[in-house]
Write a structure and sequence with these properties.
Strand 1, helix 1 and strand 2 form a beta-alpha-beta unit. The N and C termini lie far apart (41 Å). Helix 2 packs parallel to helix 4. This protein has 2 domains: 160 residues, 3-Layer(aba) Sandwich (Rossmann fold), CATH 3.40.50; 74 residues, no CATH class. The protein has a 5-stranded parallel β-sheet with strand order 2-1-3-4-5, sandwiched between helices. It has a 4-stranded mixed β-sheet with strand order 7-6-8-9. It is globular and about 50 Å long. It is built from 8 helices and 9 strands. It has 251 residues and is an alpha/beta fold.
Length: 251
C-alpha cells in the first residue's frame, strides 16, 4: 500500500499596502489554491511595505513574491501604466527587483539552486498596443517571472500562474534529485539542462550547463532577467518545460 507524501509547503510573500486587499488575496490564495490540491500547500505572509518585506526575508526563505505594481498607492499620470511609470523607482516592479536581490544575498542563492525566489507583479491598469507590450517587457526585465495585467481580484489567473510555476519547480527538484528519467538521460549523455518557463524565463540551470556557459556557481547569473532566446546555452542542450507541458529536448 503506497502512502502519498504530504503536500509541499509553498511560502509566498505578498507585498501590498492596502490592508483589506491583502487580506482578501491571502484568504483566496490559501482557500482556493489549497482546495483539492494534494501536491502543494500555499502559505501567504503579508508585508505592507518594502521595509517590512526585507525584515521578513531576513528570517524566512520564500518561494514566490507577489507585488502590486501600485504599491505606493500613487496612481500613474494617465489611466494606464506607461513606460515612464515603470522607470519610477517606487513602483512595485522596482520594489520586486530590490527584494529579489536582497533575498538572493540573504540566502546565498546560486543559479543551480532549485529553490529561488520568483517574483510576480500584478496590476489591472495596463493599456493595449505597442507601448503596453513595451511596459510588460520592461517589468519582466526588472526580474518578474510573470506579470498579471488582468483584474488582480481574478484569483483564477493568479492561481494558474502559481500552479504552473510550482510544476516547474517540482520538475527542477526531480532533475536535481536524479528522479527525472529525461534528466538522467541528458546528463548521462553529457548534456547540460535548462528548465524554461512562462515568458521564456530560465528557471533552473544544471551544474553542467553552468560549466558550458562559464558561469561560476557562487556568482549568480541573473536568470530572472534572461530568456532562453538571449543566451548561448541552447548548444549545451535544453530541457524545456513550459506551461505545465512535458519537457522536450531542444537541439
Amino acid at each position: 500500500m503506497s502512502i502519498n507524501p504530504p503536500p509541499r509547503e509553498i511560502q509566498i510573500l505578498l507585498v501590498e499596502n492596502d490592508h483589506d486587499s491583502a487580506d482578501t488575496r491571502k484568504e483566496n490564495i490559501e482557500l482556493f489554491g489549497n482546495e483539492g490540491n494534494a501536491s502543494y500547500e500555499y502559505h501567504v505572509t503579508i508585508a505592507e511595505t518594502e521595509a517590512k518585506a526585507i525584515d521578513l526575508i531576513e528570517h524566512q526563505r520564500f518561494d514566490f513574491l507577489l507585488v502590486d505594481f501600485l504599491l505606493t498607492g500613487n496612481q500613474p499620470g494617465s489611466d494606464v501604466i506607461t513606460e515612464s511609470d515603470v522607470d519610477d523607482p517606487a513602483n512595485g516592479s522596482k520594489v520586486a527587483r530590490r527584494l529579489l536581490d536582497y533575498h538572493r544575498r540573504t540566502w546565498q542563492e546560486r543559479p543551480d539552486d532549485v529553490q529561488q525566489l520568483r517574483p510576480i507583479v500584478f496590476s489591472a491598469i495596463l493599456g493595449e498596443g505597442e507601448e503596453a507590450e513595451r511596459v510588460r517587457v520592461k517589468i519582466l526585465c526588472d526580474g518578474a517571472y510573470d506579470f498579471i495585467s488582468r483584474d488582480p481580484e481574478d484569483i483564477n489567473t493568479l492561481l494558474r500562474s502559481l500552479g504552473e510555476m510550482c510544476e516547474l519547480q517540482e520538475e527542477a527538484y526531480r532533475i536535481a534529485d536524479g528522479k527525472s528519467w529525461l534528466g538522467q538521460v541528458l546528463q548521462n549523455l553529457g548534456c547540460g539542462i535548462n528548465i524554461i518557463g512562462r515568458n521564456w524565463k530560465i528557471w533552473y540551470s544544471s551544474p553542467r550547463n553552468l560549466e558550458y556557459s562559464g558561469t561560476r556557481r557562487d556568482k549568480f547569473h541573473d536568470l530572472s532577467s534572461t530568456s532562453a532566446e538571449s543566451t548561448g546555452l541552447s548548444d549545451a542542450g535544453l530541457t524545456v518545460h513550459q506551461h505545465g507541458r512535458e519537457p522536450r529536448r531542444e537541439s
